[in-house]
User: Fold this.
Amino acid sequence: MGAVAMDENFLLDGRFAINLKPKPIYAVSVTHSAVVYRAIVVPSSSSRSSTSGLAVGDDASHPSAGQSTPSPSPTTSSWSSSPPLGSSISISDTVGCDCMRGKKESDSVAAYFVIYSYTRSKKSTKSCRKRETLTLRFDNCSTYDENQEEAQRWKAVITSLIYRRQMPLAAEYAGHAREMVRDMKVDDWHGIVIVSGDGLIFEVVNGLMERCDWAKVIKMPLGTIPGGSGNALACAVCHHSGESYLKKHVLHSAFIVAKGEVIPMDLVAIDTCTGKRLYSFLSIGWGMMADVDIESEKYRHMGNARFAVMAVIKLASMKKYRGRLSYLPCEGERCRGSSLPRYTKKEREVGDQPGVEKTPENNFACHLVSDAIGAAGDDVGVPTPLLVPLSEPVPSSWVTVEDDFIMVGAVYQSHLAKDNMMAPNATLNDGIIHLVVARGTITRMQLAHIFATLEHGFQTSDENMEIIRVQAFRLEPLTPKGLMTVDGEVVDYGPIQAQVLPSMARIMALNNN
Assistant:
């Protein structure tokens, strides 16, 4: 609940009394941004304009739901001026509404309209949300059907303000989600909501990209509610939206989905050694990063803690992997020969990225991909103009490093887990691949310290572990055996290359910029 002075045009308004009491009377109005109510004084001889009851409570119980369907359009307010300062429920905090019918025989004529919202304490913008309800009692007409029709009119207006229809996706076996989205009629749905971990999101993204109309369907909004052990994308979305992911993660993710706001999200096109093309939304891992992810599967019953347990085990052995890493740095990125540019604590804190273009509009890869897609159309695969075939050498403009590594990870979201903010400067649509490189010369103590502080964001001044901002890269393992992952899923071990596809997809997230 809040207190605001409204100056917007009203979509709906009416006068309501506290439930079962004739006074005080409340004036209630709906605008594009809030439901506003204020106490007014009405002479006893005055007639009420439409309704007569208001109750406000925290998760209160309500009568059983009515059955009518909404139809009428919003009406213009009969008030000639804006109401003075009053209490309000912000539409941005509102997730749904419903019409209900009273259970008591004496209440058989009245219809009820309930608004559900999740509000924060005024003391902190990062506090957990609390459920609140606002209940209006419609009894101005002589029959229930007439009162229900008026309540449904309010429902139709408020529903149109807060959310659109979405598609919950229920997968029954591995690969089922991929099949479902590959074959579904996209015109029947406004979006796909995925209640699972990152693995199911990987299936959905690649199922959409396997369609012949991929350029259209990949723009379908995706929503994510955490249901796995890692839930990296759900953490990144909450982080971007200014919602808590450390407490009540499911509630805050569901709130974001219910709001229905949509923003662009980068994808990454990947070529594997077997010629398979994959599309990734999260990360590529090799070395310790992939080992921890895959070998911790045996501890899945531990939830997110399984990653920390396996990381400790792998720190004890500190296996080194020989490899060749080639990359195309972002324009202005500080790269000279085999020297890896640093991603320092100071840059992380102030968000200063010298020479790096932050917006997709100014990103070289964005322009190339957009032009190539426009020329190719839907009938061919996604163009990747920055990549050459894996059998050919990388372009001379790329930087190449051959060395021993503990791990190499390509990250394009801020989080890899709830307690792992590997790329704190990464955003959902910055058009950048953040290469996380740990050289073989790093010590156990140095790596353990970095891992211990990842919950608060990667930061180090050590030259043995750094982040490079790139638009494309190629990784060629020279160690014969190992694991390689894409979005936490095992892929064929061998040379792999990738290019960012700026703003290719759409994700349900709050735009707090």
